[in-house]
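Subgroup meeting minutes
Present: P.N., E.W., G.H.
Scribe: E.W.

1. P.N. recapped why we're keeping a running log of single-chain structure predictions: easier to compare across weeks, and new members can see raw inputs and outputs side by side.
2. G.H. added today's entry (168 aa).
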Amino acid sequence: MRLERIWEMPNKYTFKMKSVATLLEEEMNSFSEWADPFCGVFSPASLRNDADECLQAESHIDGLDFLCSLADNSLDGVLFDPPYSTEQALRKYKPVQRGTAGRAEYWAKCKDEIARIVRPGGKVICFAWDSNGIGKKRGFKLDRILLICHGACHNDTIITVETKSAED
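Output recorded in log:
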């Protein structure tokens, strides 16, 4: 497993950080069909969704509903960059999924759907304040962690890269 720690100024546009752009270039290089259920702006995914209709995306529905709409084993990868805090998520996605949007059970359902739609050998790149990723129990192997330290009173950005194990 590759573990890196760097310092970089925070940016509300995750994909505009130089270290993130470099990681995405390295990890997405050989894959063509990627989805981003919470795309925000500047997402390099080919299938983008964001609940905010003002943002450029192919669809504008709840992130979990977007993931549920995709076929089994249909994607080379998923960028999972949801709002990091429950407060942010509830502000943006209220009240969706019976009020669970942004809470632990909602993220778990998103991760279950991601595990279902990513092809064996495909990747998931998760962005969060933790390194949980999609997880071994869902059939993923942790390949890389990038810890971006922002200093002062900013939380670190933690990025995990995982590969879905081949099916038996």
